[in-house]
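Hey team,

Filing this mostly as a record. A colleague (T.K.) asked me to run one chain through the structure pipeline before their review meeting, and I want the input and output archived in the tracker in case anyone asks later how it was produced. No errors, nothing strange. Just documentation.

Input sequence:
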Amino acid sequence: MTTPQEELLPTTRRALAHRIAVAQAEGRTPSLVAAVVRGGQTVWHGARTSVDGHGPDETVQYRIGSITKTFTAVLVLRLRDEGVLDLGDPLEKHLPGTGAGEATIAELLAHSGGLAAESPAPWWERTPGSLRPELADVLGEQPLRHPVGRRHHYSNPGYTLLGALVEKLRGASWEEVLQREVLDPLGLARTAARPSAPHAGGWAVHPWADVMLAEPAEDLGLMAPAGQLWSTTGDLARFAVFLTQGDDKVLGAETVREMRAPAAPTEAADVVDGAAYGLGLQLQHRDGRLLVGHSGSLPGFLANLTIGVEDDVAAVVLTNCTSGPLLAGVGADLVRIVADAEPRIPEPWRPLRDVDSSVLELAGQWYWGTHAFALRLTADGGVSLGPLSGEGRRSRFRANGDGTWTGLEGYYAGELLEAVRRADGTVSHLDLGSFVFTRQPYEEGADVPGGVDPEGWRGIG
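Output structure:
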């Protein structure tokens, strides 16, 4: 794959190289490889290694651990988009008899199904998957640790269930479905359930001495949908583009946007940390940026994929040690370095190609009681409504084609906005989920709930 590194400034490239050099040296890892994506293409690749004269490139496979979960989530959402299932369906509807069927598919995707974090002993990441041949062996005698849907509790067995769901509904193995429906369409030729040369070996580094121990690379069996995959920075860079833009061969832009939205109840500590979880994606508010992606770890390997959607910058970092560098921080720093040094240049402003006069007349200032709002037309054919100044409820709205709009975010997500007209066709007011917006504060004659004092506005006499 061509990596047009010249597209970044020399000072930016040096800052990126310095960051991964520090991560490899201070994290005491045998090798570390990274890539940065901007504008839909890889613009930088870097590597650091303890082996003189040899540096891994964007084709070398590393194990990516729980980034696998994002791939599994994509398969589930394809089933939803095809109408095969609904995210609100309980698992029992499609995969009966698991003992965890009360959890909905959405709750499993967002780790809020109440399931245990791990399978019963022995440690599944360091033992053959053949030790857990049935779902009951993965879930154990007590699958649930919390009430279903009440809290975010990361669960590897939860993604085993989602993999089994995919297999049941597709009539093929998780690996076959993934190859056919995601890897091949996206051109991820170096992503697979098993490694092929060139690939890195996994190592444990002694915490108190500069010596290493080889880690076993187990086939995870039924746990594969939670962490089996091997991949490269080249392939994960392409996957980052897909998670940003969507690809109609796999999932459309609206669905990947849905994956990036918070979907799980948030713990108090997570609120403080600025962390949340979507549908197969981790979310983090860091350095003033919303970052999405996923981290992964298996014995011998650490991995991270971080996307700054608003900055249109993504980073991939892979390494072959059990513990050491904190890759989530490294990935966030790579995004920050590029976004700060070379901020995104916005597209040129262009006027709308055409505009409906009945919509244009709605643009401008409106009042909800005494709160001043502005309605604006958006380039995608919808409208936006938000306070004229300061904080407050705001949303974009999608046109429904019948003179109404549906809210897309925030307090008004899913709520209906309608321009209510008088008998003569003129606009009386806006109705937004029963809230009345008028052209003047408590406008006389408007259909304001509770009516308007006939004495009107007045001072203190």
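Quick notes for T.K.: Residues 46 and 182 are 26 Å apart (CA to CA). The chain is about 25% helix and 20% strand.
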